[in-house]
Amino acid sequence: MPTDIVTFKTFERLGFTHKETIVRDILNKRMPYKSSPSNKKGSQTSTMTQEYIVIMEKK
């Protein structure tokens, strides 16, 4: 789910203006880059490797 888009659209409805969304790599992760959520051998899914910083301004 693209939470950065949901966030800025919600704030726009509340009177804010979207200025910028910064995408930043998450360094020094404690979780592995891939995990097996289904516990099936060989099945892997990527974990979150980036964060999105949404900058809004009040009108």
Can you describe this structure in just a few lines?
The chain is α+β, with helices and mostly antiparallel strands and 59 residues long. Helices cover 19% and strands 39% of the residues. It has one domain (3-58).
Key features?
39% strand; two-stranded antiparallel ribbon; 19% helix; alpha+beta; two-stranded antiparallel sheet; 1 helix
SSE topology:
Elements: H1 3-13, E1 16-25, E2 34-35, E3 45-46, E4 50-58
Walk me through what this model shows.
The protein is α+β, with helices and mostly antiparallel strands and 59 residues long. It has one domain (3-58). It has one helix at 3-13, and strands spanning 16-25, 34-35, 45-46, 50-58. The strands form two sheets. The protein has a two-stranded antiparallel ribbon with strand order 1-4. Strands 2-3 form a two-stranded antiparallel sheet. The protein is elongated. The mean pLDDT is 83.
